[in-house]
Amino acid sequence: MQGEVRITMTKTRTSFVVSWLAFLGFLVAACAPAAPPTPTTKPAVPSSKAVTTATGTAAPTAASPVAKPATTPKPAAQTSNYGGTVTRVTYRDTPSFDLQRELGADASIALFNIYQGLVRAHPIEHQKIVPELAEKWEISPDGMVYTFTFPTGIKWHDGQSFTMDDVKYSLERMQKPKAFNTLSPRGEGLLAAMDNAQIAGENSIKIALKYPSASFLPNIATGWIAIEPKHILVAKGDTRRDAVGTGAFKLKQFSPDISLELVKNPNYHIKGLPYLDGIKYYTVKDDATRFSVFRTGQVKITFTGSAGLTSTQTEIVRRDMAEKATVYESDAITSYVITFNMGRKPWDDVRVRKAVDLAFDHQAAIKVNGNRGYIGSIYTAPWGMKPEELAKLPGFRQPKDADIAEAKKLMAEAGYPNGFKTTLICNAGAAREKQAVFAKDQLAKIGIDAEITPVDQTTLYERGDRRAFDLLTTTYARNTTDPDETLYTFYATRGSRNYGDFSDKAVDELIGKQARTLDEGARKEILAEIEKKITSQVASVIPFWDIWQTGAWNEVKNYRPGPGIHPWGKLDHVWLAR
Description:
Blueprint (H helix, E strand, L loop, with lengths): L15 E3 L1 H11 L20 E3 L3 E2 L26 E6 L20 H4 L4 E3 L6 E4 L4 E4 L5 E5 L14 H12 L10 H5 L3 E8 L2 E6 L6 H5 L9 H7 L12 E7 L3 E6 L13 E6 L3 H9 L15 H10 L4 E16 L9 H10 L2 H7 L18 H4 L10 H13 L6 E8 L2 H15 L3 E8 L1 H10 L4 E7 L5 H9 L13 H11 L4 H17 L3 E2 L3 E9 L2 E2 L17 E2 L2
Parallel strand pairs: 1-2, 4-13, 15-16, 15-17
Antiparallel strand pairs: 3-6, 5-6, 7-8, 8-10, 9-10, 11-12, 12-13, 14-17, 14-18, 14-19, 20-21
């Protein structure tokens, strides 16, 4: 196919309209060292009057059918530049080029520049949702139907025309991963509210929902809800070896364990973008070397996440490189999790699970993570309990003496006064194995002797799917700050990452109820009730929620990492100062 890049992998509610052209103007206006983000506009009171916004919508905390127009930023004081290649470092290759087969978001950051979704989070003001592939969308008065309209002339990187068949097929593939033999369950959770997608014309798609959803737009604005080419998916079953998207950058070259290089898409459908000629990702597995190549300027952006800057490295950048580079801190929406296999003894006994929860020292876990993180419950503020509230509860108290004594009492009541032996699987890799060793030490305080087995991420998830574990420890990255995805994925009966088989009919009903509740105050009340029910049964232990620290040289302009992985992955709006 013309232009196709092929790689042989050698390693294993009321109408709401958003203007596409105005979005382009918004990005151009923002292309300078940005001012602090404009505060999120609160949803307006529902009305039958249509509302039009020129710049995108503030992502609703509890989506109302009507949103006030977003405030347009003031014109930039500095003109953006075209040209140049941004270099950044990663710690492992993407296993393939199919977003719906990849489980590791951290290994897929390049793919977010190749593929696109219907909408996206604004690259600077992350609370706003703006167009990407679709140029506008309309919401029916009852909030049950979203109609997305696309511009004409969009081309895939291999030269074939983008069609509504691509959109419909991709959405269905993401919604039903098992039926399409994909590995990633993210689409299933993010599209939980979607009933079906139907072609409504040559350039439009109608998505019918099962219920009015507070989280639908934020969910589909994540990088995972990306449209992939149907002509390749049908012919080959996946796009593992075919990096063909509609995004601002195309794959130029991939050298396993060395680098991955993207180049500007000359036929990009958003006129004026991207600014860069390309992006080059260098794979560097060693933490010290990753920091060294950033510190010496060989790469201009660090990785983010567990392989990003440590607290010590952050201090060095701020102390020694303040005139050259900036450190950005962002909420990872990522938590470390210890999952119990409740289908096996003794983890079917809530007293044993509570004992582990009580014994675990959350503050010490944060220290092991380089003093980076905060304590949280099943979802973070503003939806969940605040850290200061949690700090007063059993299991979070300091010092730990009272918690340990209570935990040992529960172990004795459950018939294990001297503890027992168990197994614990974790992700291979220094950072996560360190947390597994810490978990082993916490378990030992109440007599539980855990044997650690590190496995690669795909194997870990596969064993989770088969329930082939006693304890499973890993980090889970959420895609949005909204609790909907967390609840449907991790705590709903038969949730795709509910490896512990937590099941509670009352919780399932409440999860459905909160998803349909558009009033923010009422929804928070339901979420608080869900939180109490889940935590009282100790469905899992969450030692801490992570904070990501990302470094970028100051010549990299218009770069602002946001909550989660996607706002820092896409670089179509970034430019280099000369």
